[in-house]
Design a protein that fits this description.
mainly alpha, 31 helices
């Protein structure tokens, strides 16, 4: 299909200018519509996904369109970058640059037309800054006007020049009075006056004088000049549409659909239908159909709007246009009922109905879905009549899951022996079966099921998704060790990293640090082990485990592994607080291995943690792992430092030297500077305790640099 341009523009652009884009889930990261922002949801159809992800996956599969999904790392055993969530690095990707084949500005059709009309070239950079009704006052629409002038043999060269000059004035913001004055010398009875009428109508439109614009365009719809008749008919629709929303701004500057002028919207609807009836393949036909969707939104004609979207989805020409349509759709339906979910199917729109009913299965504040079994039963005939009963079946399975009816899922679904290569409904059904096994804590059966499904699927996304479920099953069942067997089916370093950091024993960490499959996994295991040795006071073990660093060559470095940088343990004490001398971490731990209560060494261990912030970072690779994150959750995660405990130990020690005790008092108080909240780890101490430390420091060690330096307690 050839795309029609000129004054036509997408309804998504209108939506963006008329109201905020209410996302169907969360939008604190990159805009979903950006070309570099990839699908971040699970590769299944689920209420937990962003509705746009669900819709794009469903529709793209039917059309065999490629999906904007993340690329699989070259070696998943050495990368933690594949996961089902937003990736911060997506924001760093640049939008596609202009193709090298683009013609220079002086060779553009517009500038060639200007040359023929003997008009000066114009700066068209303002196009990207236009909003609302002004978006059509563009270089493209100017070019179409100039083309109409050049094609009209009844015009003289002087008339074309004058009309072209007036159109340039309109582009720069000229009023209808200025255009009329500029064209006052046009001869009576000349066809040039028709073009003048169009320009004055357009000026009135851009000025917001919709009554005046309507009169001007109405006088042209029966013109014998084809371009003028068609464009005027199209502009009548736009005029009424803009009139309908001119007072739609709410109290707080937001779009308020209740303020729409309904008669004007109905007038716009009639004008759009009239245009399409007369010019079904016209130059503005695509835009007019898009406008009809907007008009039905304004009229809150939801079933009709759903039908229009269903039809347009089927007509999408390529992946890019489908992506844009899905974005537009969610801008409408994501805010459709302002929080009131759809609870019944729309006639003739099974896919739209499915997406909206799936959205209604999200749990509310009462941990219950909005959609009830009665609602779902009532919608079944609509899916049957459209031949889309498989979509209804998926909704039923998801409703059972949302209402904790795992038994019904297990009874209704049969584990597959084969899996179609491109059937997201079939895969989603199998996943629901596996999750039902997990819900009933049938761990051996769940493990065997996930292993089988992993072999059946040939899709990389699906395989990683199943791996996360298998890993969670192994952790839940108390058999996390199986994940690190030589023949383990869980090969993703991300999932293995999560388990190493959160539930692996020191013995397992030691094993993976020395005999792991690659340097990346060995690094994660060893970093976790060394931090835990320190935070769990296994100082002698730390000295021996530290030697395992030499076996990891070359060292693993870079942003992707900055949370497990082994060079942090090379700390030499230079960054300790000026005036308090510490030796290296190695020397400090040697002292502690011989005397775990050594006051100076405890303070210096605190300095290591304070200046390096070394800890087991459970957040670095925690997103997008599904239920595995629940499986590995601990109320008190391993490897989190507690500097405050060291200071309290030194403060209470009768053998601590004044230098060390005064520094410990200073540091214990500074744990709460300046926010009043503890930044050192461990339980909060109240302000009275901090005041006591402050008084002790000032009274017992008044000559110490720390007493002199400290002015407040927090």
């Amino acid at each position: 299909m050839v795309r029609k341009t000129t004054l036509a523009f997408s309804v998504s652009a209108l939506l963006a200018s008329a109201a905020p884009a209410f996302a169907s889930f969360d939008m604190e990261d990159c805009n979903w519509s950006d070309t570099h922002c990839l699908l971040k949801g699970d590769p299944v159809l689920t209420p937990g996904n962003d509705s746009r992800d669900n819709l794009l996956r469903l529709l793209s599969e039917a059309k065999s369109f490629p999906l904007p999904v993340q690329a699989m790392p070259a070696d998943i055993t050495r990368s933690r970058d594949f996961y089902f969530a937003y990736h911060p690095e997506w924001d760093d990707l640049e939008a596609p640059t202009r193709a090298a084949t683009d013609k220079p500005a002086e060779e553009s059709p517009l500038n060639q037309q200007l040359a023929v009309l003997q008009l000066e070239p114009v700066d068209t950079h303002q196009d990207g800054e236009q909003e609302n009704r002004f978006v059509s006052n563009s270089a493209d629409s100017m070019s179409q006007f100039f083309a109409a002038l050049l094609a009209d043999d009844s015009l003289t060269a002087e008339q074309r020049h004058a009309l072209g000059q007036a159109r340039l004035g309109l582009y720069s913001g000229a009023t209808d009075e200025q255009i009329s004055a500029a064209l006052a010398s046009l001869p009576a009875g000349s066809s040039a006056l028709l073009y003048k009428t169009y320009l004055t109508g357009a000026a009135l439109f851009y000025a917001g004088d919709y009554t005046g614009a309507d009169g001007a365009f109405t006088s042209l719809i029966d013109s014998d000049r084809p371009w003028l008749a068609e464009t005027a008919s199209y502009m009548l629709m736009r005029t009424a549409l803009n009139k309908s929303s001119q007072n739609s701004t709410g109290e707080y500057g937001d779009f308020d659909i209740a303020r729409i002028d309904r008669p004007a919207a109905e007038q716009a609807q009639k004008a759009a239908q009239a245009y399409l009836q007369r010019w079904p393949e016209g130059r503005y036909a695509d835009s007019a159909r898009g406008m009809l969707r907007r008009i039905n939104w304004y009229l809150q004609a939801w079933p009709q709007l759903a039908g229009l979207y269903e039809q347009r989805f089927q007509q999408a020409e390529n992946a890019e246009s489908l992506h844009a349509l899905v974005t537009e759709y969610d801008n409408v339906y994501g805010m459709q009922f302002y929080g009131r979910a759809v609870r019944e199917a729309f006639p003739d729109a099974p896919q739209v109905s499915y997406i909206e009913l799936l959205r209604a299965l999200r749990l509310n504040s009462d941990e219950k879905p909005t959609l009830t079994q009665e609602d779902l039963n009532g919608s079944k005939p609509a899916f049957e009549q459209s031949g889309k009963l498989a979509l209804w079946r998926n909704l039923q399975l998801n409703l059972w899951q949302a209402t904790d009816n795992a038994a019904a899922i297990l009874q209704d679904v049969k584990p597959a022996d084969k899996l179609p290569p491109h059937d997201i409904l079939a895969f989603s059904e199998q996943v629901l079966y596996g999750q039902a096994l997990m819900a009933q804590k049938q761990w051996p059966a769940a493990r065997d099921f996930w292993l089988k499904l992993l072999k059946l699927s040939q899709d990389p996304e699906q395989q990683q998704y199943v791996q996360s479920r298998l890993a969670a099953t192994q952790v839940f069942s108390g058999n996390a060790e199986a994940m690190f067997a030589a023949d383990s089916a869980v090969t993703s370093l991300r999932f293995r990293s999560q388990v190493l950091k959160t539930v692996a024993s020191p013995e397992r960490l030691r094993q993976q640090a020395s005999q792991g499959p690659n340097n990346e996994e060995r690094t994660i295991a060893l970093h976790t082990l060394l931090v835990r040795d320190l935070t769990e006071h296994r100082f002698s073990d730390w000295l021996s485990d530290r030697k395992l660093v030499s076996a990891i060559t070359p060292p693993v470095v870079g942003k992707a592994f900055d949370d497990v940088n082994l060079s942090t343990f090379d700390w030499n004490g230079d960054t300790a607080e000026a005036g308090y001398v510490c030796r290296s971490l190695d020397k400090t731990v040697q002292v502690l291995s011989q005397n775990a209560k050594d006051a100076h060494a405890l303070n210096c261990l605190g300095e290591f943690f304070r200046t390096t912030n070394t800890h087991v970072d459970i957040w670095k690779d925690s997103a997008g792992n599904g239920v595995l994150e629940t499986a590995v959750h601990r109320k008190e995660p391993y490897g989190q430092f507690n500097r405050q405990a060291y200071y309290q130990q030194v403060i209470a020690s009768p053998k601590a030297e004044p230098e060390d005790k005064s520094y410990a008092l200073y540091r214990a108080i500074m744990c709460y500077a300046p926010s009043g909240y503890n930044e050192c780890g461990g339980a909060e101490v109240d302000k009275a305790q901090r005041k006591g430390w402050f008084s002790q420091l000032k009274s017992q060690y008044p000559g110490s640099p720390w007493a002199q330096k400290l002015k407040y307690y927090w």
